[in-house]
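Why predict the complex rather than its parts? Because the way molecules touch one another can change local conformation, and only a joint prediction can capture that. The input here totals 556 residues.
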Amino acid sequence: MSTDLARFSINQMTVRQLSMPELVDACTGLGIGNVGLWREPVEAYGLEATAKLVRDAGLTVTTLCRGGFLTATDPADRAAALADNRAAVDEATALGTDTLVLVSGGLPAGSRDLRGARERIADALAVLAPYAAERGVRLAIEPLHPMYAADRCVVSTLAQALDLAERFPAHQVGVTVDTYHVWWDDQAPAQIARAGAAGRIHSFQLADWTTPLPEGVLNGRGQIGDGSIDMREWKGYVEAAGYTGPIEVELFNEGLWAQDGREVLARTAERFVEHVIR
Amino acid sequence: MSTDLARFSINQMTVRQLSMPELVDACTGLGIGNVGLWREPVEAYGLEATAKLVRDAGLTVTTLCRGGFLTATDPADRAAALADNRAAVDEATALGTDTLVLVSGGLPAGSRDLRGARERIADALAVLAPYAAERGVRLAIEPLHPMYAADRCVVSTLAQALDLAERFPAHQVGVTVDTYHVWWDDQAPAQIARAGAAGRIHSFQLADWTTPLPEGVLNGRGQIGDGSIDMREWKGYVEAAGYTGPIEVELFNEGLWAQDGREVLARTAERFVEHVIR
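Output of the joint prediction:
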């Protein structure tokens, strides 16, 4: 593996057009040693088969995406969410990763109560965090951009994520810092310092901000270097906070998904070196 | 005018399908005594003609939208922006409103420097604020939702807007609180209190948050009551902070624009009474 790519991790969603064996083969060919996996493709290929595939290739699984969606009020829905998150922890263990990324969930249908939804996340973490810790898995709360507050994630800032995480030991619950979600926030650098001082930066992800945003605003994350975010600046913040772990590139982008996956992977690695490392 | 509508102001953009005379006539017919105007339709109808029309109808112009776009680096562009904002102040004076809403502007093309852009806004305010104050006009910095940070407004939170405003006297520079832009922000209630204590809430606007967001995310603002925002809660925050002024409903919504403007206006007034007043 080249030194430039030592910390690079490719999140599987960036090249979701690649099958699991194609992804692993492409990583091996390009000297990429780290991958972030998603539950759905892992399930499709098979949990044990995926674990064996990445282990045999010598790949490190930096994160499993994702657990969460913990804001339901209905008791049956809440029980189902907890069961699903326990399963996600078990899958993380089987894949040999120590980090499960959590997307907290939006407002229940008809609700306008952000505060209540955030509090229900804390309630769920009280159940899930010890379960995960017993299995060697850390939960990494990912604040999502405020444009997702209603329908996807009521945790919109690193400050909110840390307010939740700090109710638990750092080895149980920390945060995911994703440039796409926090780049606009002038408080984020101080919150990264807060997170780093407590050992709570459990994942660091990159995507660039490009406009115009597509309908639904889900799949418009820009390739590294194409947008408004100074990637070196954010790498500097997490490093100043003591973070030396993998740097995962996670792009949801219809345009990239329509291209050859191996070429997208190669170009993403090049962009990482150009805009983050050198 | 009914007591329920005493504080209601219809922002012209909500019913942009109405001509200026149609808007004024519809307001008179519905017992609506306040309007927020936009520069482009005012210019189209004529500044003096608009001023006479609203004056003769007994309408109060609560705000003029909008000045701003103060983030350019190029000297010629900066000079043009200042000249345009002085013209906006003059138009506000002619229309008899004391409040000019400012949308600060996004990143210049190719720039990734949010901090620098925010500082250039302060530089421009140092020129514009005294000019406006001499003419009886207050500038109201409007933080826009963080999804506009790159291409429209680098001021994303009330805290950032107040950090800028507080460099100037309160009668010169304050803020616009718009529920659409700040509803996700758990720091906003405290910042509203900060703004109110200093007499810096110069405008209070409402729009609801509905999903999915449309492409470009500009024209998907929800009718009051259709979305995720508890309007009474936010009215409570500004009132607890001492604000007793007009409450302007400003919806950018392709769906509403495709309907009969008078019906939209009547329904918006009904929704205001239902979700904000009663």
